[in-house]
Every structure is written in structure tokens, then in C-alpha cells.
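Input chain follows. Return C-alpha cells only.
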Amino acid sequence: MVLSEFVGAIRRRWYLAVVGILLTGVLGWSASAFVAPSYTARGLVLMLPSKNAVGPGGNPFLGLGGLDLPARVVVAYYTSAPAQEAIAEVTPGASVTVSMEESTRGPVIAIDVSADTEANAITALNFVADSIPETLGRLQDEVNAKGNARLRSRPLALDETAAIDGSGPLRARIMAVVLGIAMTAVLIYAIDGIALRRRLAREERGTSLAAQDVADDEPDQDDLDDLGEGRGVRDDHVVQRLHG
């Protein structure tokens, strides 16, 4: 599609462009109206060293080094099918992502939740945060960790209210507007091309008919011969009368 041809089509069919823009606006509004926003919530859980590693009267925050790997093991569990199924049973439709909080250098586990309602988002967040100590305990049971040698965890920060995420309706609106503009451009270019082809066809037919009319009006060779013979007969008749 040549740009100059497209611009010309827009100029000739400007009324179609206006209609397309209006319909695109309606399409964008409809798309955002039918796509509900989601609600997001976030929580952070800190892994703590064992009492044996801290010692009597010790500060557990000074013994966070080396806990990154156990924290990643816990994170890996929540990517499994059983963990996701357990979350789905509590809050159907909620999306939960458990990962390492990379903005810190400590063993901090991040819980990111997205749900269709604020209540579901907070419920899913609390469920996962409350299940981390149980998951950590079960994993340590499998390796026979006992008593004061067991690792611990505690909530570091948990959202009490969910935030509205309007990116879904915004994406739907943008996609609808882009689609509407593209369809308007294609239709205008196609309609303008059809109209131009029809006009050229009419002009060609008109030119052909005009040429045919001119050709019909011009005498052919037989007409000229007949005309010549007629003139000869009249001339002979005149000559005979003069000599008679």
C-alpha cells in the first residue's frame, strides 16, 4: 500500500474515516467496560536460621547468610501442581506466584497474588503465607531435621488490602482502538479502490461508446461507391437532356 494512495483515499472518503473513528471509540469503551479489573496483593516472608545456628542470646538476623538455598527450595515447591491445586481449592481463579525477592540479598520469599476480587486476593495471600511454615516443616521432616536444628520463617510484610490493577481494561481498550483503526484504514482503502475501478470502467465504456458512434456516423467505402454511382447516373441524364 503506497502512502500517497492511502492519504488520497482518506481525503476522498473522509466521511468513512469519521464513521470509523466514532465506531472505534465505541469499540474501545465497550472493551474496557466488559473487562473487569483485577486485584493484586503482595507479601514477604523471611527465612530464619535455626536456634542452634543463632546460639543462646544470639541475633537471628546476623545468621541469615546461607539461607538462600533453603528458601529457594520452598519457592520451588509452590511451583508444583499439588501446591497450585491447593491454592485453587481455596480461591478459584486466583493467580499466585511465589518467588525470591531479588531486591534484597537475604532469604526473603515474595508472594504475589492476582484475583478477580479483593477478598479473594487477600484470602489467597494469607493462605500461602500461613502455609509456608508448614511447608518448611514438612520439608525438614523429610531430611530428619530435629529440634533446635530446624529452620524457621516469619511474615515480614503482608498486604491487608488489595490494590486495583487496571492494566487489563487498559490493554483491552488499546487493542480495541488499534483493531478499529486498522479495520477502518483497510475498509477505506478497499472501498476507495472499488469506487475508482468502477469509475474507470464507466469512463472506458463511455469512451468506447463515443468512438462507436463516431465510427457509425462515418460513411464506409460501400456508401461512397453507391454515392459515386448515383452521381454518375445523374450526370449522364443531364448530358442526354442537353444533347436531346
